């Protein structure tokens, strides 16, 4: 089977933003995304406590990843999430290079 | 400490496929893997509902990652998972470049 | 918006090590990290059972990821975690290239 270059966008945000983020992802034509429960500390989220134990047990954030075929779509999703979701909430966005099988399963761009 | 280039395979699939996927991973000589609860939507899994809230709270999928030293083993795991697990179930597979410490902890290839 | 190159460190370890790992991350100047519940098998953790079903349902490990701007800080975190945490406990560390928005949200190095 052949592998194809693609871009992954990872968004770490408060759970309350999930719906808005998924809407942005879908409006950019992505055909799916994966959500994982997450916690953490610092600029990544709202937990500024120094109690590490509670940080590690509290999964009130989400880690959303989405793969798209085009770098420009990945950048568009990332920029739109930062602009529309992170003014009043903490969170981060980053991109990674990936190789995918079956590119027809991803966005058509 | 020295870092070495390696390949990561990420598989996002329905939980019911976990055992079969882990069997494929082990049969390719990988010495370990990591499983994380996951949810999502679209071609990534079976959730085709438009109710985003439920999608975000339902972690009935798994995100399995495995690191191997050889690109060919990574590609073999990826291809075998797609061929053997995703005919009747949704799911995705992708590869990423990583750098590891202590390469003796990973597959011997 | 502009994307900037950065490094991600991923640490998969037993939950009991979380506090020590987070301390190492913070002492290297990183401004945040993300924690996800994880399970697995093999050199990645303490689960050497052959019962795959239990492995998949038992999330007694953590997957911690942290993004820093400098490769040298990423390598320092990775090396210190291996040296200080993995002598008596299993676990892995790996690095990945990422592209970030808003670099001021990450370490200042």
Question: What order do the helices and strands come in, and which of them pair?
Answer:
The structure is a homotrimer of 109-residue chains.
Chain A: E1 4-14, H1 18-27, E2 32-42, H2 52-57, E3 61-68, H3 71-85, E4 91-100
Antiparallel strand pairs in A: 1-3, 1-4, 2-3
Report on the architecture of this protein.
The first copy, chain A, is globular and about 40 Å long. Chain A has a single domain, classed as Alpha-Beta Plaits. Mean pLDDT of chain A is 86; it is low at 44-50. Chain A has a four-stranded antiparallel β-sheet. Chain A has 109 residues and is α+β, with helices and mostly antiparallel strands. In chain A, helix 1 runs antiparallel to helix 3 (71-85). The first copy, chain A, is 28% helix and 37% strand. Chain A contains three helices and four strands, in the order βαβαβαβ. At the A-B interface, helix 1, strand 2 and strand 4 of A face strand 2, helix 2, helix 3 and strand 4 of B. Strand 4 (91-100) of chain B pairs antiparallel with strand 4 of chain C, so a sheet runs across the interface.
State the order of secondary-structure elements of chain A, H for helix, E for strand: EHEHEHE
CATH C-level of chain A: Alpha Beta
Poorly predicted regions of chain A: 44-50
Specify the structural class of chain A.
alpha+beta
User: How is the largest sheet of chain A built, in terms of strand order?
Assistant: 2-3-1-4
The assembly state of the depicted protein chains is: homotrimer
Query: Which fold name fills CATH's third level, the topology of chain A?
Result: Alpha-Beta Plaits
Largest interface, counted by CB within 8 Å of the partner chain's CB: A-B, 28 and 30 residues
- Which CATH architecture of chain A would you pick? 2-Layer Sandwich
The total of helices of chain A stands at 3
Share of helical residues of chain A? 25-40%
Rounded radius of gyration of chain A (Å) = 15 Å
Number of domains of chain A: 1
Shape of chain A: globular
The averaged pLDDT of chain A comes out at 86
Distance between the termini of chain A: 21 Å
| Largest beta-sheet details of chain A | 4 strands, antiparallel
DSSP strand tally of chain A: 4
């Amino acid at each position: 089977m052949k592998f194809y270059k693609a871009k992954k966008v990872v968004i770490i945000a408060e759970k309350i933003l999930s719906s808005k983020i998924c809407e942005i992802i879908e409006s950019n034509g992505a055909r799916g995304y994966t959500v994982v429960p997450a916690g953490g500390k610092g600029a990544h989220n709202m937990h500024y406590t120094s109690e590490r134990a509670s940080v590690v047990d509290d999964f009130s954030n989400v880690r959303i990843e989405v793969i798209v075929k085009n770098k420009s779509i990945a950048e568009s999703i990332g920029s739109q999430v930062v602009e529309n979701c992170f003014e009043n909430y903490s969170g981060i966005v980053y991109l990674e290079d990936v190789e995918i099988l079956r590119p027809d399963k991803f966005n058509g761009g």
